Amino acid sequence: MNKNNVYIETYGCQMNFADSELVMGILKNKGFEVTRNIDEANVILLNTCSVRDNAEQKIFHRLDHLKRIKRENPQAVIGILGCMAERLRKRLIEEKKIVDVVVGPDEYRRLPEYIDHAFGGEKGIGVKLSRTETYDDIIPYREDGISAWISVMRGCDKFCTFCVVPFTRGRERSRSLDSIVNEVKSLSERNFKEVTLLGQNVNSYNDNGRDFADLLSACADAAPEMRIRFTTSHPQDLSDKLLYAIAEHDNICNYIHLPVQSGSNRILELMNRTYTIEHYLNLIEKARKIIPGVSFSTDIIAGFPTETEEDHRMTLEVMKEVKYDGAYMFKYSPREGTKAYSMTDDVPEEIKIRRLNEIIDLQQQISYEINQSLIGKEEVVLVEGVSKKSDEFLSGRTDTNKVAVFPKSDDIKVGDYVKIEITRATSATLFGASPVPVEVD
Ligand code: SAH
Ligand code: SF4
Ligand code: F3S
């Protein structure tokens, strides 16, 4: 067995997935090989998430499974990367005997060193956070494909009271605009067709006065045949300039992920979200004027401390008013070290579950209605691959990020843009007919 075969599993947000590609880039530079088969690996890395308790429980279960591998191959090095590394640090090594290295998001350059020491039987922890690290010069390891992501900034300074991210990812810092644009160009040369610019709050991107709107426009101009997406926007600093940048570039997708979290101003204040529902709804209205046809998705938390039925009802009202195309919906999960952790988690579990289910049901109904209204219309889809359910169909996504499925045809291949007519829809999928290739540039 090659001594340096690395297997990595990624949990959590897209930024963690982008980080895993960085980590593989760093390790490949030092002579490691990447494997998709855990049984061939002697370095097993889990890139972890701490955002909610169930995310961490998943990793603990996974570690229990990995005991078997460690038993069969005691030389194997097991490493915890990502947000749990930052949050639990020493505890992971002390309590989970099989863990050899614990390395947080700003110390990945030193990972090869830690792994080498672990081969020599030495356990290691690297969890310092940095004010400057952006991995600007690292070329991530990416397999060929259609879609890629690029982290354009790291960290978060918002300190929403429920959220562990500012503690696990450290202070906000931006990568240089030029290096991002160069990476987009090189993705375009490799025939990638879509790139998602990532950050916990991309609207506060700042490279010596060049803001996120400048960055988006520069990326869109550098690769006119590519779709440019981005996430996440915080409602506090979504600028008019950004909305116009989206409107003025055909290849910047008309889709904004704009987490609202709650529909109640009292709860928003306790969450330290720094906007009111009135501000939020004005923003949606303005965006719809500037970018006709723009669609929105959101994040919602059910059962934040002190949330009443009235607060919950206000969340449902906002959902009905905005009519999100999609939503990520969660039960509040107390995280040690955050401000909300000192508030009493006083909404009983069964009420949290009931409220969450009401939110999920409503969103499903809204998504269904929006998708039904698209029947008979034409949509341009970027072809991503064969449909999961049938070889006879292809699947891709619309500009507004909806999954669309349509019949295969000889003149259409993965990476093409096609126009389809929508004939049927569920809350999650559009079904189309008569695909025709279209030129985009
Ligand atoms: N930076 C992004 C989101 C980061 S985390 C933003 O500001 O919107 C993704 C989502 O997880 C959050 O939007 C929030 O809805 C949810 N989340 C974060 N902490 C949580 C917690 N303690 N309990 C439940 N959901 C949480
Ligand atoms: Fe967490 Fe708020 Fe930062 Fe998003 S903006 S990562 S929710 S602290
Ligand atoms: Fe999870 Fe860390 Fe992302 S906590 S959501 S992996 S920033």
TrEMBL record:
Native organism: Melioribacter roseus (strain DSM 23840 / JCM 17771 / VKM B-2668 / P3M-2)
Domain (MTTase N-terminal): residue spans on this chain: 4-120
Enzyme class: transferase
Keywords for this protein: 4Fe-4S, Cytoplasm, Iron, Iron-sulfur, Metal-binding, S-adenosyl-L-methionine, Transferase, tRNA processing
Top-rank taxon, per record: Bacteria
SUPFAM superfamilies: Radical SAM enzymes
Reaction it catalyzes: N(6)-dimethylallyladenosine(37) in tRNA + (sulfur carrier)-SH + AH2 + 2 S-adenosyl-L-methionine = 2-methylsulfanyl-N(6)-dimethylallyladenosine(37) in tRNA + (sulfur carrier)-H + 5'-deoxyadenosine + L-methionine + A + S-adenosyl-L-homocysteine + 2 H(+)
GO MF annotation: an example: 4 iron, 4 sulfur cluster binding
One GO cellular component term: cytosol
Purpose of the protein: Catalyzes the methylthiolation of N6-(dimethylallyl)adenosine (i(6)A), leading to the formation of 2-methylthio-N6-(dimethylallyl)adenosine (ms(2)i(6)A) at position 37 in tRNAs that read codons beginning with uridine.
Co-factor binding comment: Binds 2 [4Fe-4S] clusters. One cluster is coordinated with 3 cysteines and an exchangeable S-adenosyl-L-methionine.
Name the UniProt record assigns to this protein: tRNA-2-methylthio-N(6)-dimethylallyladenosine synthase
EC number: 2.8.4.3
CC cofactor: [4Fe-4S] cluster
Domain named TRAM: residues: 372-436
Classification via InterPro entries: Elp3/MiaA/NifB-like_rSAM (IPR006638), Methylthiotransferase (IPR005839), Methylthiotransferase_CS (IPR020612), Methylthiotransferase_N (IPR013848), Methylthiotransferase_N_sf (IPR038135), MiaB_methiolase (IPR006463), rSAM (IPR007197), rSAM_horseshoe (IPR023404)
Organism classification: Bacteria, Pseudomonadati, Ignavibacteriota, Ignavibacteria, Ignavibacteriales
Domain Radical SAM core as annotated: residue spans: 142-369
Binding site for [4Fe-4S] cluster 1: 13, 49, 83
Subcellular location: Cytoplasm
Family: Belongs to the methylthiotransferase family. MiaB subfamily.
HAMAP family: tRNA_metthiotr_MiaB
Binding residue positions for [4Fe-4S] cluster 2: 156, 160, 163
